[in-house]
Amino acid sequence: MPKRINPLKGDLMEEIKLIVDGKRLDGRSFDELRPIKIEAGVLKRADGSCYLEMGKNKVVAAVYGPREVHPKHLEDPSMAIVRYRYSMAPFSVEERKRPGPDRRSIEISKVSREALEPVIMKELFPRSAIDIFVEVLQADAGSRTACLNAASVALVDAGIPMRGMVTSVAVAMVDGVLVLDPMKEEDYYGEADIPFAFLIRNGKIESITLLQMDGRVTAEELRQALQLAKKGAMQIYQLQREAIMRKYIREEEVVE
Amino acid sequence: MPEDILMEIKRDYVLSKLRDGERIDGRRLDEIRPIEIQTGLIAKAEGSALVKLGNTMVVAGVKMQPGEPFPDTPDQGIIITNAELVPLASPTFEPGPPDENAIELARVVDRGIRHSGAVDLSKLCIEEGEKVWMIFIDIWALDDDGNLMDASALAAIAALLNTTVPAERFELGNNFPLPVRDLPVAVTSLVFEDKILVDPCRDELSIGKNTITITTDQNDNIVSIQKSGPFLLSEKMFDELIDLSIVKAREVRELLREV
């Protein structure tokens, strides 16, 4: 067992317990999400946008398009191209992060784009681009899931036709138990981290659109993790819906 | 454009075979191509391996040197994995810094090695907080006939098995073999509708580059998963892939034990 060092302070904390009396460090039960706040349509210039908080994560998503493709050679004559850029602000983490894409954000951008692509009706917009930009303003484990949740609300806000909603949440294995939506300490000290994203259509989880995992779990634990993630995703999905509805009620009021 | 038309024809061929439950090269759906592993071919490297997976060919080299540990693991060695999709390996690879595919490849291989605890990093501490051994794994694709992922993961662990820590060169005592204690194996499958094709070759990938890579350790634990490609995965397929990857990895691990 490697020595445990507090990632936030750099102190040595050899015997930190992540689960005490069946509760997690922040008092949550195993299958409980962090508090989530979602607001759609927060940016004026973007075609669609969303601000989202998931625990201490604070992220903004913007969608531009369908619009002309630049550079031109990337154009697809049969469908829209989808681009996704995950980016972390230098001040979003304890130690300043150099701005610009690093290897981690390039990989996250790739898998996140691939999570949304099969859900977006690209075939309706040949020769055009749908650009999704997400900025992490504050990170605290699970930022890729927070960003995907924000991105899908922003896509709806932009009026992009979709087959359903994409909702994302991670499951971690800490001190031998599976926990939903891990926070920083659980992600850092935990035995495994498993981010999921799902396509939810007509209020039902239809398929998995993002799946990654690193750590160490048995096949059985992995199956249980999927069930736990599905439970969490349904709750987030409700909040995403409510955020979109609130936006439209707000717009109605403005018209009156 | 001629490439596109050719792909279109290949796609139709792969699909027509698949409808009868067959693969274009006559393999069973869960059959991995013949594997050849050759180690120690680069004398200048601390460890090296050339892996052939059918016609796919990858070479991995390990270089080591002392360096400063990460502040959060002051008593552990460091692994850094890099992959280059050099243009000689495929007409679609371009020169330049690693693109998202090369980065994903390197990171998935890295996670398999890291989370299986394949290298005992605690034995690579020279002076706690000051100096530890750094392991650089560089993966060079030579011929991309599909599934560079599994070939690269195999080349990386085979190269590590072949690695001698060059302590004498740095006047840090006697050389010793790198402490390798697990054998992670990556198994990549192409997912198409309700079918799973293990170890897809390049022509098969013309029906969609929709793959799942599952890496397991020698105790059948899952240490890394990566869904790659814009597709929807059903829960049923998720279930099947887990079991299949564990079983197939055992087969490959037997070859690795002979290295």
Task: Report how far the terminal alpha carbons of chain B are from each other.
Answer: 43 Å
User: Tell me, what's the shape of chain B?
Assistant: elongated
Order of helices and strands of chain B: HEEEEHEEHEEEEEEH
Q: Low-confidence parts of chain B, pLDDT < 50 over ≥5 residues?
A: none
Largest sheet of chain A, if any? 5 strands, mixed
User: What integer is the average pLDDT of chain B?
Assistant: 96
Order of helices and strands of chain A: EEEEEEHEHEEHEEH
- Taken from the alpha-carbon principal axes, the silhouette of chain A is globular
Query: Which two chains touch over the largest interface?
Result: A-B, 38 and 38 residues
> What distance lies between the first and last C-alpha atoms of chain A, to the nearest angstrom?
63 Å
Gyration radius of chain B (Cα, Å) is 19 Å
Classify the beta-strand content of chain A into a percent band: 25-35%
Helix content estimate of chain A: 25-40%
- Helix fraction of chain B? 25-40%
Radius of gyration of chain A: 19 Å
pLDDT < 50 stretches of chain A = 1-10
Report the portion of residues of chain B in β strands. 25-35%
List how many beta strands of chain A DSSP finds.
Answer: 11
What's the helix count of chain A? 4
Class computed from helices, strands and strand pairing of chain B: alpha+beta
